[in-house]
Amino acid sequence: MSMAVVTWQRLNVVGKILAIAVPVLIALGLVTVGVAILAGPFAIEFVGDNVPLLRFVAAIGAVLLLTIPTAFVVIFMELKVIARMNLRVGPDRVGPYGTAMSVVHGLKFLSKEDFAPLGVDLQVFTIAPVVVFVGSVMTFLVIPFAPGLFGLDMNVGVLYLFAMGGLTVVGLLMAGWASFNKYSLLGGLRSAAQMVSYEIPLTLSLVGVVLLAGTMSLNQMVLAQSGSIADWYVWQQPLAFVIFIIAGIAEANRSPFDLTEADQEIVAGFATEYSGMRFGFFFFAEYVNVFVVSALIVTFFLGGWTAPFDWPFPVAVAIDPLAWGVGSLVAILALPVVGTLVLAAPFWLSSRITTLQALVIGFILFNVVAIGLVLGWAFVSLDWVSGLFWFFAKSYVFVFFFVWLRGSLPRVRIDQLMGFAWKWLLPAALLNIFVTAAAIVIVNR
Amino acid sequence: MDRALRSRLERRFGDCLLAPVAQRHDQTEIRVSAGDATDTIRALHDEPDLHFTLLADLAGVDTGTHMQVVYHLWAETSTDWLRVVVDGLDREAPRCPSVTFLWKGAEWMEREAYDMFGIVFEGNRDVRRIYLPAAYTSFPLRKDFHLPDDASRSPGRGVRPMEESLPPRDATSATNLRRAQAG
Amino acid sequence: MTERAHRPHPSLDDPSIAIEDVLRESIVDAVPVARTEREAEFYTLGDGEMLLNMGPQHPSTHGVLRVVLKLDGERVVDIDPVLGYLHRGVEKLCENADWHQAICYTDPLEYVASLFCEWAPVMAFEKLADVEVPRRAEYIRVLTGELNRIASHALFMGWFALDLGGLTPILWSFIERDEMMDMLAAVTGQKLLFNYFRIGGVNGDINHEFMSRLGDWMSRAGAQIEANQGLLNENEILVRRARGMGVLDGETAMRMAVTGPNIRASGVPFDIRRAHPYSVYPELEFDIPTRQEGDSLARYLLRADEVKQSLRIIDQCLHQMPDGPVMASVPRLIRPRPGRAWAAVEGPRGMYGTYAISDGTDQPFRMRIHDPSFVHLQLVSLLTPGNLIADTMAIMASLDPVMGGVDK
């Protein structure tokens, strides 16, 4: 037996992994460096020539990556909030306070069999969830999350949004038709009727906002609302705000308008025959939609990423470590050690725990404090951080609102739903357009 | 016990009663034949001094020698439950007139009586099995239908087959197994 | 993409048989050969009509009910309930048990309010065996029965909202119901199928734990029930979906042999507790609430009114309950003299009746159990045609059937 084999057998599991991983990583690094040296100049030239294209690709990649955590957070919120409203505990086993529950949901979908029942139109059956998912994910592309943080500043952003919303209908209809199931068919047709009807008041309610802002670009709309809370369009367009929320709930197929998947009537509607990751796409798309509608409400009516009030006292924490003396740098390097010891001391003195445990607690506390300080600094000094904060804070208020509705309201009936759209929302939206246009003419005269 | 009801019933239906009006506790019982059943019940329902408007129950009974259909009726005019027993139905081919023309709600109860006893109700437009599958061939509440594990009725005799008339493919596999073990 | 993910049917491997033929064949087979006039009428499809099979596993069929809907788009043209998925043959089982044992079998019929389907056979057997029940036992029966009635109605409110798409009320009502079930468990020893009533009385006197819990609960029950109903009664969506749905007039209700809250919601004040008094109900003061509308909303609101009356009855029971034994001296094995007896009680869903025939042996010769859910389920095919699929569920829920009782 050769020496190498004996050495290999003596290694434990971690050692074996390291013994393979380290050389592979070194080799990969070398290859990367080599490629960079060889192709670098060309790549830089290419990037310089094609900034918009690359920005587009990067934006789409980022959007796709963003949807997964968004869906996870919304799903977790729904599980937990509805549980609390039902006087239940909700998920509390996976992760701290059950926070990993939605991740486990996702893994469950991935690990299930890719099953298509007998008699389905397999091509359409397979494409349908993808269409629905893409339709809702692509709306992220034009939403401005923070100053300068958006996928594309389209000058037809509003139209793009509704085009993508229309794509979802096609997907649901495809799913309903291809499933070879009467429940699915009913669900698909319900969704077609419902979403086509509600898209009209949804679009018309935004005309007032477009008239006020003078643009269809979402980013420009947010900029037009920047200033203070008084500049938000919700004060000038209260009717449109209400119409948009109601029609938005219907567009996202949420309770009380979730007729497409009314489980007491048509089992799961268009998704009856779906399982595994195919169903997962529908599932994720639904929760992404909830977030998208919330984000759109915030963008159009509540000032997007703008803060509701100016920071009351001027803070401009400019950090320029190079300007500090050497002594300060040493102090900064010593800070973790000193901080850990200082924070550990009370525990070490007061509780009957070992020194090591006290040190671990102190270290964790120090990290919490340090991260808090860094985030606080970023919040007050970096525009996009505070923008992100306000955007997500406002959006999740509306996500909570949607979950709240689901927890408290029964479902409407299909004829009531359609009657409400055509008899009430549509005239109200038209009225809103006329009043807004008249007001603009009178004010500008 | 409502003595007035008894005399009223005797006066009105004296000819067609198969047995004297029986009274016990809060119940009054009359017995009629299948031929008189429709007229009797219609009179009980329609005539103002009787006016038994509420059908409380409809039950089939197998006495071992013949079949019965038992109606329980309630009226504001009486403090008693009225039991109408349609007696003497042929066990081989029991037929009884339906009361769905008076109480449409009797439809399912008659279906149940058909399902359990095989009593065919003439005039009910939906006499088919209600609980048991359509392919089932026997009527389980008849007295000659013994449960396979009926130890109290057949001590030490092992297990009886579900129904002699059943073709083997319809019997459950468990019954076949037990039959094989017993025989 | 031509490959199929799953191939359950062997003939699909045979390339000469097209999959469409197999499917068409299976669809044709699903329509049975008509055996009756009604079935022939139901399975004859008009232009643009389709059959939709709902159940036996479906979220809103309250157990294992199967209904076949004949649809014209979303509109229900006709409906045919198919029963038997929960059929256990209780009547046959009772004929093979002795008189005491038979009561156990009747418990699971009505698993939501199981005291009432004990009560009817117990009363019938007492009439057969001429047993006099002690007055304290009668009061305990009324007390626990009314408590069980409230528990059943509380659950109904939740189910009703759930079938209209509301998630929360069902869990709230289960919490409320659980409190009452705990009380009953304290006195009966079991939480779902109490098996508490015996021939000649009840199984054990009420105890301190029950009384202290009941007193505690009574002091806040009214407010608690009001709060739970506040979530529903003023809900515009619920009211709009239930009002005018499935209207049943009093005349039709009598013809359909309907009893209980469903007939009282149609304006007929028929309540066996007053119409044919039993137990100690003549000594108690309570009203029979009725409503004239006869729609789903009336059936829902009527049950809310009944809960208040039941609270009144419980209060009176607690004040009037005499001391004494709770069980007559009844032998372990009884052989009633040959005869027939019928007894009916007013349960939360309507009339629970038992017709028992004794042939002088220790077992019932015949034991017929009448369950209101079974009768009320017939109304589905009367009330739903012309409405939408969603209303089918709302109407079915408002009739409050329990499949354990329907399928016996």
Structure description:
The complex is a heterotrimer of chains A (about 450), B (about 180) and C (about 400). Chain A is mostly helical and about 450 residues long. Helix content of chain A is about 75%, strand content about 0%. The radius of gyration of chain A is 27 Å and the shape is globular. Chain B is an alpha/beta fold and about 180 residues long. Chain B has a single domain, classed as NADH:ubiquinone oxidoreductase Nqo5 subunit (Beta Polymerase, domain 2, 2-Layer Sandwich). Chain B has 4 helices and 7 strands; from the N terminus they run αββαββββαβα. Chain C is mostly helical and about 400 residues long. Chain C has one domain (about 90-405): Cytochrome-c3 Hydrogenase, chain B. Chain C contains 17 helices and 8 strands. In chain C, strands 1-2-3 form a 3-stranded antiparallel β-sheet. A 3-stranded antiparallel β-sheet of chain C has the order 6-7-8. Chain C has a two-stranded antiparallel ribbon with strand order 4-5. Mean pLDDT of chain C is about 85; it is low at about 1-10. Chains B and C meet through strand 3, strand 4 and helix 3 of B and helix 2, helix 3, strand 6, strand 7 and strand 8 of C.
Task: Describe the secondary structure blueprint for this structure.
The complex is a heterotrimer of chains A (445), B (183) and C (408).
Chain A: H1 3-10, H2 13-49, H3 51-85, H4 101-111, H5 122-137, H6 157-178, H7 182-213, H8 218-225, H9 233-236, H10 238-251, H11 263-266, H12 276-301, H13 326-350, H14 355-381, H15 383-408, H16 414-444
Chain B: H1 3-13, E1 19-24, E2 27-33, H2 34-46, E3 54-62, E4 67-74, E5 81-89, E6 95-97, H3 106-117, E7 120-122, H4 173-182
Parallel strand pairs in B: 2-5, 6-7
Antiparallel strand pairs in B: 1-2, 3-4, 4-5
Chain C: H1 19-30, H2 37-42, E1 50-54, E2 66-72, E3 75-82, H3 90-95, H4 99-106, H5 116-129, H6 135-163, H7 168-188, E4 197-198, E5 201-202, H8 208-233, H9 236-242, H10 250-255, H11 261-264, H12 272-275, H13 296-320, E6 339-346, E7 351-358, E8 364-370, H14 372-377, H15 379-383, H16 389-399, H17 403-407
